[in-house]
Amino acid sequence: MTGLNGSGMSMAILEAKDLRRDFSGVSALDGVNLSAASGEVVALLGPNGAGKTTFLRLARGLIEPSGGTVSIDGCAARVLAARGGRGVAAVGDAWEPAGWISADGLGDLQASAGPFSRRIYGRWCEQLNLSPYKAFRQFSKGQKRWILCGLALATSPRLLLMDEPADGLDPSARLLLYQALRAYANDHDAAVVVTTHICGDVEKVADRVAIIDRGHLIVDAELETLRHEVRQITRPSEAGPIVPGNGCALEILGHRREGAVDLWWLRTSNPEALSSLAGGGEIRPVALEDLYLAVTAFRSRLENAS
Amino acid sequence: MRFFHPMLLSYLGRKTVWPTLLGAAGLAIFELFPSAPLSGREMLPAAIIVAHVAWVSWALARLDKGEMPFLYTRGFHWDVIWWHRVAVAALSALAAIAASSLVLWLGLRTAAQIGMGDSLYPLVARRESWAPMYWLVLYVLLLPVGLYAFVRAEHEAPLGGLWLAIAIGPTTWFAWNLLAGTAGWLPRALMVAGGCVVVALLWAGQRLHRNVEVAS
Amino acid sequence: MYLRLDHHSGEPIYRQIVEAVKYKVASGELPPDVQLPSIRVMAGQLSINPRTVVKAYEELEHAGVVIMRHGQGVFVGSKHGVVPAGVRREKLADLARRLLAEGARLGADPEELMKIIEEEARHIPGAMEREPRRKVRI
């Protein structure tokens, strides 16, 4: 399973090092270092245009990096893709077949291309009661996405790359999908990379979150670690800025002033020691959405100031 | 690696239905009318064939915005996709040739001509059966050019090579056309040259295709 | 074993599992020597990474609530092996402190909190059987 006997090391399946991609001189991704190991679900979180889709295309080998490397099991993504990309399955935003083909026909096409379980695919489509013989164009956006996810899962890949896979799905289908992705990663020791701009979804499914902002990775951490280490402190503004003392390592992630009160978002490996800093103020755990907003706002302010 | 994928063939083939109809119907209908014996080197069929080739190449390369990333991420080796594109284009051309051949061999042209009161028939019929073969040669020369041109365009490479490719095919055809009546080694040499160009274009196309950036 | 997790609270999942199991053990829902679901099964049921379950089970073992028996599985500690009295008192006192602080923040005084505790306790099977309603002295 996932290295439970103390070793704790699982194999990195996807590895991006210093990955860069420019489009017409504009940098879409810059110096991105990201990896996904077996049994791990990594969420790439960021707004539209941050570079998530570009990352996915690079990871799947559809486009060439402008700098750096991205490889799957040691093989360059581009090389792997030209050979067919066995072992990698991707569901991209608007990557769709011609409208006339049916779900059944898609199964035939996929089966022709490589290993494929019709049983898994069939059961998957049945979960949402999707007719195998209806033309693809007649399905709703979410249903289309569901079918494509099923195609991907039924090929039993080592690496799943999914661009907003839950887009268009209602909450119950969303949940089913994320549970399926989680179960897949657990049972097959596969790596799953999911991009999304919805923090709640990240919290439901991911082990690690990588926050991407305008082509840069600004946070890359395990969710459990973030939950453990990140706190929000509220204290009176007159107390001034927070100063870490007594060898307590502290990282300030965000700050906002609300009237007479300062809100601080901090990360520390020793959260128990924070009470002295709070000076009577409140210390709270931080939900991912809060963290995300605080970090991106803070980053903007820092950039504007410099 | 399996080389032949009927599902892939039919998936791509569906895109070429209209251009195939253009070619097949165009040539077939054209054949019914000229009162002069068909030489196979008339201008109108040549134009129809050029249009057919251009349309087929475009249809196979264009693949709606999101369709290309979808197809190229199914697991097919990209060379396999290229050769299936070539195969589909070839089948489209063969369909047009078959249609026009049938019109001649089944005597439809003869019947139409007699109906229009032409005195040359049925004496000339046999000589005309070769006309579709000339058209086949034209397809063989032009299709690789069309396919190559479009994969080159996908590559966002400079157009210089594209124009060269476009020039070679028809130039070879016309040169051969001019010399077709001539005896000697020149026509054959040009045929061989044409064959080399065809192979070169398809091979170059495969190589370019392998490195294509799949847009979305 | 049914556990409800809150993925959005900012509370580490492993800790939520630990607290939930501790509660179930303390309330009697998980009697001594009963076997907990395997790591795999638990991870599947809760839809989380098995590593998180491992962390939770390890912490539970560290706290003396469960015992991981090599090759057999994870079991609730036997009656006498449960958390030592001193540690137990400390943990309960800490819990009480946190409850009182949160309650104060919400504007509830200790008396109101006591009433609510009694209310909730009625829902626990067998919890109130031993002693009849006793006047609680502050």
List the defining traits of the structure above:
heterotrimer; A: 306 residues; alpha/beta; Rossmann fold; 2 domains; 6-stranded mixed sheet; 4-stranded antiparallel sheet; 10 helices; 30% strand; elongated; disordered N terminus; C: 138 residues; mainly alpha; Arc Repressor Mutant, subunit A; 3-stranded antiparallel sheet; 5 helices; 3 strands; 51% helix
Structure, explained:
- The complex is a heterotrimer of chains A (306), B (216) and C (138).
- With 306 residues, chain A is an alpha/beta fold.
- Chain A has helices spanning 52-60, 77-82, 103-113, 118-127, 141-153, 171-188, 199-205, 223-229, 275-278, 288-305; strands spanning 12-23, 26-37, 41-45, 67-72, 75-76, 88-91, 159-163, 191-196, 208-213, 216-222, 230-236, 250-258, 261-268, 282-285.
- In chain A, strands 6-7-8-3-9-10 form a six-stranded mixed beta sheet, with helices on both faces.
- In chain A, helix 4 packs antiparallel against helix 5 (141-153).
- Residues 1-8 of chain A have low confidence and may be disordered.
- By secondary structure, chain B is an all-alpha fold.
- Chain B has one domain (6-210).
- Chain B starts with 5 loop residues before the first helix and ends in a 6-residue tail after the last helix.
- Chain C has 138 residues and is mainly alpha-helical.
- Helices cover 51% and strands 7% of the residues of chain C.
- Classes of the chains: A alpha/beta (306), B mainly alpha (216), C mainly alpha (138).
- Chains in contact: A-B, A-C.
- The interface between A and B is medium-sized, with 33 and 30 residues.
| N- to C-terminal distance of chain C | 36 Å
Order of helices and strands of chain C: HEHHEEHH
Tell me the helix content of chain B.
over 70%
Strand percentage of chain C lies at 5-15%
CATH superfamily of the largest domain in chain C: Winged helix-like DNA-binding domain superfamily/Winged helix DNA-binding domain
Mean pLDDT value of chain B: 83
What profile does the largest beta sheet of chain C have? Answer: 3 strands, antiparallel
β content of chain B, as a range? Answer: under 5%
**CATH topology name of the largest domain in chain C:** Arc Repressor Mutant, subunit A
Level-2 CATH architecture of the largest domain in chain C: Orthogonal Bundle
| Oligomeric state of the chains present here | heterotrimer
Low-confidence stretches of chain C: none
Return the domain count of chain C.
2
Fraction of residues in H or I helices of chain C: 40-55%
Which structural class best describes the helix and strand composition of chain C? mainly alpha
- Please provide the count of β strands of chain C: 3
